[in-house]
Design a protein that fits this description.
Blueprint lengths: L4 H7 L13 H9 L13 H11 L5 E4 L6 E4 L16 E7 L4 H12 L2 E4 L2 E4 L2 E5 L5 H14 L3 E5 L3 H11 L5 E5 L4 H11 L3 E5 L2 H13 L5 E5 L4 H16 L11 E3 L14 H13 L4 E4 L4 H14 L13 E4 L8 E5 L2 H14 L3 E6 L6 H6 L5 H10 L10 E4 L7 H8 L2 E4 L7 H11 L1
Helix pairs in contact: 1-2, 5-6, 6-7, 10-11, 12-16, 14-15
Bound molecules: iron/sulfur cluster.
The site of iron/sulfur cluster (SF4) has 13 residues, from helix 2.
Length: 456
């Protein structure tokens, strides 16, 4: 928990020497509490005080990184319980399992299936970010071989899942340069697993059946010299898992309980009953994973490779981890749809992503090559922008001039959204273009373009 100004003051030399530029130590402490001053500005602060102040300033939840290069991912360092309080920082990672029982073509096919789970939604790329290699075979060599093969065949980050320190050591020997996440250390294997994690500089998952055991376990692992830890609740019902994930989040953020101040990992299917490479109920996995993403899993591991199950999870992550104060926007400019020419229709919409991509898909469905002019309305939809005076004849005329639409089409006709038909007259005066009022709902655009524009 952050220290108050008075708590900081007690740790300062209290000589009021003014070397920090403040008239008194108390004034400096108050500035420090508000993060308007730096501790280094006081040259006389003791080493002991520095340690205490640094510990208090550390984030309540550790940031953990694994993978390398483009595949590197970060989880943790969250600061709030609820998104509206500020925002969530590091999006949940979705990992898909690959069993080490798979070999040859079967293994190759499974890796390709996982690699292909990449999507685009409202202009943003979404995808699975990690592969969880499961030691279903029980063999150290098979596990190490599968991990090495997957590392060579996928750009995704790796999570190595085994209960056996021997199998983990063998797999890390072949993949350490990819900085995999090592899952998982139980109370009886903590020492051996921590040794492997420390020597390879890889983060380690600690697993236990209760919060109490888990907090003891993280302290034990930390004492072995491993700082980057991920928490995993094992052997609980789904309901208890969700309940305890929320408790852990509250204890780490509200109480700054350091033993639980780490990101978390959840297996949607129980690792012990996993059937390696065989999909269980994909819909159920999607529903469970989305609940875990909301409350508060940093990494979810699923078995399914069904795109219809993955997309809801990734969409949930996209929505939850967007900044609630910044609407998702597209760049204001002219977007050609198909291969439009000087006779093609020109219409405008706003730069709120959801609005733009809905209009874009309906224009595409019309099969009439068109231009869509996107007006900067600070990421608001048509009616919201109009009500807030961010969409008016001036903003549209300015956007038309800036995009030089006169050079694109010869007809001087502009289709406007039906909801803002009221601005037709003023817009015609401001632009000297003929205004055509389009439909209110953009789902009617294909019909409008086919029947009204073409006839016109
Ligand atoms: S430099 Fe340090 S000791 Fe001197 S006034 Fe500032 S806080 Fe106090």
């Amino acid at each position: 928990m952050a220290l108050t100004g008075l708590q900081i003051f007690k740790l300062l030399p209290k000589t009021n020497c003014k070397k920090c530029g403040m008239p008194t130590c108390l004034a400096f402490a108050m500035q420090l509490a508000q993060k308007r001053a730096k501790l280094e500005d006081c040259p006389d602060v003791s080493e002991e005080a520095k340690e205490q102040l640094a510990a208090a300033a550390a984030p309540p939840m550790q940031l953990v990184t694994f993978g390398t290069g483009e595949a590197q991912v970060q989880v943790g360092q969250e600061t709030v319980m609820f998104r509206h309080e500020e925002k969530f920082h590091n999006p949940t990672i979705v990992a898909v399992t690959v069993s080490d029982k798979l070999t040859g073509e079967d293994l190759k096919k499974r890796i390709e299936s996982v690699n292909s789970l990449q999507f685009e939604r409202v202009g943003t790329k979404l995808g699975v970010k990690a592969i969880a290699v499961i030691n279903d075979s029980g063999s150290d060599d098979a596990f190490a071989e599968a991990c090495a093969t997957i590392k060579g065949a996928s750009d995704l980050a790796l999570i190595l899942v085994t209960e056996s320190p021997e199998a983990m050591a063998a797999a890390v020997g072949k993949t350490a340069d990819a900085v995999p996440l090592l899952a998982q250390a139980a109370p009886d294997t903590a020492e051996a697993m921590a040794k492997i994690a420390k020597e390879s500089s890889c983060p380690l998952v600690a697993k236990a059946e209760s919060i109490e055991t888990l907090s003891e376990l993280t302290e034990k692992i930390k004492a072995e010299g491993v700082e980057d830890i991920v928490l995993s609740l094992d052997g609980l019902s789904f309901r208890d898992q969700l309940f305890n994930l929320s408790r852990m989040r509250a204890l780490s953020l509200k109480k700054v309980f350091r033993p639980l101040g780490y990101p978390s990992l959840s297996f949607v299917a129980d690792p012990a009953s996993r059937r390696g490479g065989v999909d269980s109920d994909s819909d159920q996995q999607a529903a469970m994973a989305v609940s875990l993403i909301c409350k508060y899993s940093s990494i979810v591991v699923v078995d399914t490779v069904e795109p219809s199950a993955l997309l809801p999870m990734l969409t949930a992550i996209m929505n939850i981890f967007s900044d609630p104060q910044i609407p998702v926007q597209v760049e204001p400019k002219v977007y050609p749809i198909g291969e439009p020419d000087e006779k093609s229709p020109l219409m405008f919409t706003t730069n709120f992503s959801l609005t733009y991509y809905t209009v874009e898909s309906d224009v595409e469905a019309s099969r009439i090559p068109s231009y869509i002019l996107v007006v900067d309305t600070e990421g608001t939809s048509v009616l919201t922008a109009y009500s807030g005076d961010k969409l008016n004849e001036k903003t549209v005329a300015d956007a038309m001039a800036k995009a030089n639409v006169e050079s694109l089409v010869k007809h001087r006709k502009l289709i406007i959204p039906g909801y803002v038909a009221v601005m037709s007259g003023k817009l015609e005066e401001a632009t000297n273009w003929e205004v055509m009022v389009g439909p209110r709902e953009c789902s009617m655009l294909p019909k409008y373009l086919q029947e009204v524009w073409r006839k016109d």
